[in-house]
Amino acid sequence: MVEAGDADTIAWREVLPETIARIEEAGLPIAEARWIVEEAGGTDLDEPVTRRCMAHHDELLRRRLAGEPLQYVLGHWSFRTLDLMVDPRVLIPRAETEAVVGHALDEFDRIAAGRSGAVLVVDLGTGSGAIGLSIAAERTAARVVCTDCSPEALSVARANLSGLGRPARRVTLAEGPWFDALPDGLRGRLDLLVSNPPYVGGGERLPPEVIDWEPHGALVPGTEGTEDLDLLVDGSTTWIAPGGALVLELDPRQADRLAERASAGGLVDVDVRPDLTGRDRALVARMPG
User: Fold this and answer.
1) Are residues 57 and 106 in the same domain?
2) pLDDT bracket for residue 4 (50, 70, 90)
């Protein structure tokens, strides 16, 4: 690696090939080298490298080569229209969840059609705030409540909320497990209830980058993997307004079982919708009325 003492004589363009070589040698996607270089020095590869920025680059590279997920190494990650702060207190925002937000927005637009007032949205188990903050940013009629049982996760969501700009005025954060975080006055009034709950079974094998770094409680709810999904489906009918909707992220293997449970519980128009790869990823169901 280029020595820090040489940093004022070179440009980032000269650093990039060696970074690529180190990343490739570790069996990682070579695109990650560019992300690390740009995080340390900016997007202009002709800029000269300072000693401080070179030290930052080397630390980012060291962490990635040690197995830490790239998103945590960079400290932020793109999600739909947002650039979210992320660290090991929260799950890494994923493309599958972007698709879930898309399905939630379809339901939002259905509910908002012909209505002049606000649409009340709740994102239970918000983590970084990816779902709730995206809805607030993309729909000006949204009034959003984001909840999480983890004060550490809510600290991350709060940081992301502070960078949201004007839509942040329409977002409230609340701490507590699932429906317990909501005031009783919201019972039967939610227009849209969205969640990406833990849905990994206790015995499932996960990649080291996931199991060693991401928060276990946000991944695994229990032995079966459907414990929190069941709770959300069963409780939703108490909280969602007539004609409102429930949108839940799930594992494709859980889709049929959860759809049956939703129908048996009194929800209607129950559907399972795909992610960007075509796999079943979101349960969408509505309250009668």
Assistant:
1) no
2) very low
